[in-house]
Amino acid sequence: MSEIPAKATESEDPSDGARAKAAGELAAGVGRDAGRDAGHVDVTDGDGDGEGEGRGRERRGENGGRSGNTGTNGNTGTNGNPGADGNPGADGNAGIDRNPGRDDHTHRDEPAARTPFGHDGLGGLGALGGEAQPGDAMWQSSPPGSIYDYIKAASFSIGPDGLVDQWSLRAEQIFGIPAGRAVGMDPIDAFIDPDLREHGQRKMAEILDGREWTGVVPFRMPDTDDGRRGEEGLAEVYVMPTRTQEGEKAAVCIVVDVRTLRSIETDLAASQAIFGQSPFGFLLIDPDLRVRRANHRFASLFGGTPDDHRGKGVHDYLPRSEAERVSAILRRVLQTGDSITDMHVTGFVPDSEERRHWSINLYRVHSGSGRPIGIAWLGTDITARREAAREAAAARRNLALLNDAGARIGNSLDLETTARELLDVVVPGFCDLATVDLYQGLLVGDEAPHGLADGSAELRRVAFASAVSDAPFAAGGTPVAVGAVHHYPFNSQCADALRTARPQYIPGEEGGAVQSTLAVPMVAHDTVVGLAQFSRTKGSEPFGDRDRDLAVELAARAAVCIDNARLYRREHERALILQRSLLPPGDPVASGLDIACRYLPGSVSTGRPSEVGGDWFDVIELPGHRTALVVGDVMGRGLRAAVAMGELRTAVRTLALLDLEPAEVLSALDEIARGLGTPGGVQQATRAARRPREADLSEVYLATCVYAVYDSVTRRCTFANAGHLPPVLVEPGEAALMLDVPPGMPLGVGGEPFEEVEVDLPEGALLALYTDGLVESRDHPLDEGLQAFVGALTDPSRPLEDVCDHVLNTLDTHHGEDDIALLMARVQGLPVDSVGDWTLPREPRSVGRAREHARTQLLAWGLEQLVDTTELLVSELVTNALRYGEGEIRLRLLLDRTLVCEVWDAGLVQPRRRRARDTDEGGRGLQLVGLLSAAWGSRRTPRGKTVWFELPLPDGETTLTDPAEALLSLF
Question: What does the buried/exposed string (b/e) look like for 560-585 if buried means 16 or more CB atoms within 10 Å of the residue's CB?
């Protein structure tokens, strides 16, 4: 075996290069001799198992000396001169040269032969004097542990023959060869490469000649039994010459695995680099939970040097409650060995009141033998990260709140509903309590609210929400109930917010539940419409700048929706007022009919956008105790539809007074409806109908209408329909049915004639006209609604008002999507004795007969007061029929609420009233009729014309015109 100086191999790496270097030096014979006088010493492994120690004891003498003590036999210095002849000293102790390499030697007396065996390379002392007891040479490891828990060191001895005669258990572990096989082996042949064995044998001879040697030796494990080549390694060897009991030269070898040493050296360097250069706080905590070591990063945070933190505990760094929690976790890690990852710890650093947050990783640290020796603490300051995460979470929460507000606020065009939607969004996600106050002037429909200059105008609390209490609250004032009208004092912060249109922060009162309040003005289109207050109770996070900006944004969004709702409410109310003004006032009255009607405008209370529609109905009294029943619906919504409805209703009344047939009335209405969307009116619309129409669809007015004329004398009703829903008729004792009236085209389309249908109505029959809002909605199709309406008319004998209420309660009339118009009439024809009908021949005597028939009938009816006036007017009309008419003459008297007299003839020329001159002898008959009657007129009939007049019945209050005075007034 060759030798390599120890100093030259301290930095060697146990690599192939190092092995090659060591092998080269061995081959070159480079080395140094270390001469040493040595007595014979037996060696044990010292690994605690006592193996090899017994062999040493066998060679000890009774008095602790050697059985054959020797002097410095063969002892040589550096010059190789022989020493003494080997005689023992006086006391029988061996003399040992303690300084190898010197040119002189000294005998040193010792109580007994010293045995240089140790604990796996650490070294130990044998028994001094007396007989060695078993276990005296054993070294045991005790806490905190030993270096030999980490390095691999072993020992073996070489006999005088150069063969292994002792082999320790650690040697078995390093070389993988059991003692039974190793003892008797030549270490040079067993572990050295063949190319180096010659030099190894030479070096072994020098060692056995008494030379001490240390160096790094490459070695190779013996080949395995199955023929596999043994592993190669690098070992640092320390060889000490010894002598056997017989005085023969031998050697003791201590071997250390260089690979393990280099690994420990590398790990130590890496540990120092990580521990000292780590940007994280690093602590090593002992089993007593005291800091054993701290790095510079930790010391820079908590002050002092790393050594200043030795012996401190977690209570020196953290608040008491946090320290108790962390201590419990440290004990658990120490006991169980379970590591802790990303444990969040909160505390403070010296000279700072800022709360800091750390992320801590904990794991148990073990010795080389596996015994727990402490806990590693790796801490990272995550205060900035936590703050950034908190900011990001707040931003996400605010964004989600804004998205929620955009989806939930403004779904209704109702002021109060919109205010409640705002509070539903902010409570409890943004605040604990919230209120909304709106200017009273805006709620009652004023154009501009009063008192905006000083912010003290009256407000009404329209909404309140709380996550902690149902009771109203006030930030620094008396609680205000929902619906109450109040105002804020001029010097209050709420008034200042209203006055300046800027949010105000209001701190809570001492002893109150409210921590702070944000008073945020609700601004829409540069106009303050109200005030929203957001409050957080004590214990909640206080409002910040981000919260203030979010509150302003939420209030602004709600304010725009509230202002839109206000504008819509104003338009809706105006359109509703216009529409109601165009509907019949009060309860309509008709001859021969019992009338009941209902009108329900579209409502915004359902939360759906709704505008006033163009539904209308009308009851028009016609001459001859006839009645026109009209129900219509202008397509579209809003003011335009209401205005179009008013124009069509006026046109219907005008056309009805002309006593046109129902089909003719609808044809005229169709022309008028087309003219509504044309700047040039009806004529322009007529001309435009002859060429392709390119008008804007927004200016096209379409409407549906059903027009019916009921004659109370004949109980016959004539219907004409322009695209409207069919009338429903309920005859006594029969089920309700829809009349088959040809629908025709809607008004405004043009180009198609309308058909008429005559229906005889029995006494007590019920007739119902309606609009589509009654039978159709988004949730109920038209067919289903019509069947439900027909099914609701089951008892026509009930009072008509009750029948209307029953229909509205049975059907889905609260959807609020469209206007609802319902007109119901029960047939009550004129009795036979209330009608006088005579036919007169075309001769002058018929005038006198007509007066006689009229007198007789009036006296029968008990109308003596009307006899003279009636005789005079009948005489005038019959005379005109004889003079200007054709065919036979028919006289009819009708008694109902008024007295109606009709004169029929076959002439087509309508009478025309003119003003007679003072010199004219005639021409004053129709003027006289106009003076004495309540109303008069003429209408065409299928066979000619009818001229009629109407007289009010005497009731004790109505004063009748004297015929004589009327005649004199004409001259």
Answer: bbbbbbbebbeebeebbeebeebbbe
Distance from C-alpha of 935 to C-alpha of 950, rounded to nearest angstrom: 5
**Among the listed residues 117, 177, 172, 122, the one whose alpha carbon sits nearest the alpha carbon of residue 146:** 122
- Please, are residues 349 and 379 in contact by the beta-carbon 8 Å criterion? no
Three-state DSSP class for 722? strand
Taking CA atoms, 743 is separated from 707, 759, 853, in Å, by: 11, 16, 45
Alpha carbon 230 to chain centroid, angstroms = 69
Alpha-carbon gap, residue 200 to 861, rounded angstroms:
163
The tokens describing 737, both together, are 């049915």
> What is the amino acid identity at position 156?
F
- Which residues lie below 8 Å from residue 35, measured CB to CB, with a gap of 6+? 76, 77, 78, 80, 97, 100, 101, 210, 211, 212
- pLDDT tens-digit profile of 231-279? 777 888 888 889 888 888 899 999 888 887 787 777 777 777 777 778 8
Specify the DSSP class assigned to residue 659: T
How, if at all, do strands 372-381 and 766-770 pair? unpaired
Distance separating alpha carbons of residues 737 and 787, to the nearest angstrom: 10
Query: What are the tokens at 546?
Result: 């981000």
Structure tokens at 331: 């004990």
Tokens 């420990």, located at residue? 264
Contact 602, 611 (CB under 8 A): yes
Candidates 583, 821, 653; CA nearest to 725 is 821
Q: At 8, is the secondary structure helix, strand, or coil? A: helix
For residue 153, give the H/E element and its range. strand 153-158
**Residue 317 exposed, middle or buried by CB count within 10 Å (0-12, 13-18, 19+):** buried
Cis? peptide before 742, omega within 30° of 0: no
Q: In Å, what is the CA distance from 736 to each residue of 344, 771, 782, 862, 937?
A: 79, 17, 17, 41, 38
Q: What are phi and psi for residue 922, nearest 5 degrees?
A: -130, -165
Secondary structure element (H or E) that encloses residue 238, with its range: strand 232-243
The C-alpha atoms of residue 920 and residue 941 are separated, in whole angstroms, by 32
The answer to whether the CB of 408 falls within 8 A of the CB of 537 is no
At 157 the pLDDT is 92
> pLDDT tens digit string along 858-894?
999 999 989 988 999 999 899 989 988 888 899 999 9
3-state secondary structure of 838: strand
The pTM score is 0.52
Distance from C-alpha of 304 to C-alpha of 293, rounded to nearest angstrom:
13
The pLDDT of residue 448 is: 52
Residues 6+ apart with CB under 8 A from 227: none
**Cβ-based burial of 504 (10 A; exposed 0-12, middle 13-18, buried ≥19):** buried
CB within 8 Å of 335: residues ≥ 6 apart: none
